[in-house]
Amino acid sequence: MGVVRVADALRLAEEAGLDLVEVAPNARPPVAKLMDYGKYKYEAAQKAREARRNQANTVLKEIRFRLKIDDHDYETKKGHVERFLNGGDKVKVMIMFRGREQSRPEMGVRLLERLADDIGDLGVVESAPRQDGRNMTMVFAPTRKKSDAKNEQRRRREAERQAKRDRQAERSAKGERSSH
After folding, report:
1. What is 83-105 written as a DSSP string?
2. Comparing C-alpha atoms, which of 126, 120, 130, 128 is closest to residue 140?
3. 143-167: burial string, b at 16+ Cβ within 10 Å, e else
4. Contacts of 25 (CB under 8 A, 6+ apart)
5. Between β-strands 60-66 and 123-132, what pairing exists: parallel, antiparallel or unpaired?
6. Which of 51, 53, 58, 65 sits in a 20 to 30 Å window from 131, CA-based?
7. What is the largest CA-CA distance in the chain?
8. For range 141-170, the mean pLDDT
9. Dihedral pair phi/psi, residue 82, rounded to 5°
10. Rounded Cα distance, 73 and 129, in Å
11. What gap in Å lies between CA 168 and CA 156, rounded to an integer?
12. How far apart are CA 173 and CA 180, in angstroms?
């Protein structure tokens, strides 16, 4: 509309049933818009809520191994690491050394490299095996983002709910047919 006096702008807003909202108060002259302010606030809140929903904070999960771990126990802990990486979280794997085991750090490195090979498609090595005191640590980062993992999980849950609703509707339809 160009430069308009405040009184004229307020009159135009009143006639249109809208609000006069100042959008750039520091500009010369200040910029104002005719809009439905309630609707604007609602849409801004929706955008903020959506942004919060898609924002994902990555958590550092920790799994502890012993150097002399049994095959089945190794598979179980590897499963936990895979689940964490699928969820989009980083995983810190720690091997605890006891007694004379401390003189064999190469065995710890070998175990961590075996784990890295086993989960290669789900995560990448973020920090190489590092000895600190009685422990050796290694950090894995997921290959996909946490927000992607959460969205995937949400879609899968929604699909399961829909399938369940469809099955219930089918059962109730069969029940109605058999009662007639």
Report:
1. HHHHTT-EEEEEEE--GGGGG-H
2. 126
3. eeebeebbeeeeeeeeeeeeeeeee
4. none
5. unpaired
6. 58
7. 88
8. 83
9. -60, -45
10. 21
11. 18
12. 11
The percentage of residues in the chain with a pLDDT greater than 90, rounded to a whole number, is: 18
Tokens of 176: 């109605």
At 139, list the tokens. 């950090």
> What is the reported pLDDT for 86?
84
pTM listed for this prediction: 0.54
Q: Answer yes or no: are the C-beta atoms of 120 and 142 closer than 8 Å.
A: no
